[in-house]
Amino acid sequence: MIDRLKKLFAVPESEPVQTDAHQLAVAATALMVQLARVDNHEDESELKIIVDCAVQAHQVTREEAEEILADALAHAEDSTSLYEFTGQINDHFDQPQKQALLESIWRVALADGRIDKYEEHLIRRIADLLHLNHREFMQARHRAEDAAG
Fold first, then answer.
1. Any idea where the Co-chaperone DjlA N-terminal domain is (predicted)?
2. How far is CA 31 from CA 1, 4, 8, 71, 116, in A?
3. Which of 25, 37, 69, 94 has its CA 20 to 30 A from that of 79?
4. d(CA 45, CA 108)
5. What is the DSSP letter of 82?
6. What whole-number distance in Å separates Cα of residue 44 and Cα of residue 41?
7. Across 11-30, average pLDDT
């Protein structure tokens, strides 16, 4: 009886299980996708920055980063709130990792050379949901602006 219960609840070995690292990368990337879409104009330069940030942040190849982006685009499309992404990040990221993510989000906002008021508002919401204070919010912005040149 116990053996039958174990078999019933066991995860079959043939089924691929997404790693936590992949799910976290998708959650972080989905926040960047949400930002890219906030002004109703998801542009190629923003998507390129998102892939660049994924390569750097998650130490993956460009192809893997593009897969992460594809998953994030699908998840962002189906998402009804930011909480599902920020909740995962809060559970697994420390403060410096959240600050680095916010800097990447700022880089996406700066990709087209201007920051729309809706983009800034969304970044502020994300920072609040990630429990980042105003100083951390501004530091991330300044680092992203410096990197943009």
1. 26-142
2. 46, 42, 36, 12, 16
3. 94
4. 8
5. S
6. 10
7. 70
DSSP character at residue 23: H
What is the end-to-end Cα distance of the chain in Å, rounded?
A: 66
Instruction: Read off the pLDDT of each residue in 40-56 and give the average, rounded to a whole number.
Output: 88
pLDDT tens for each residue of 84-101: 999 999 999 999 999 999
pLDDT over 50 at 15, yes or no = no
The model carries a pTM of 0.82
SS3 8: helix
3-state secondary structure of 149: coil
SS3 letters for 82-148? CHHHHHHHHHHCCHHHHHHHHHHHHHHHHCCCCCCHHHHHHHHHHHHHCCCCHHHHHHHHHHHHHHH
Residue type at 124? R
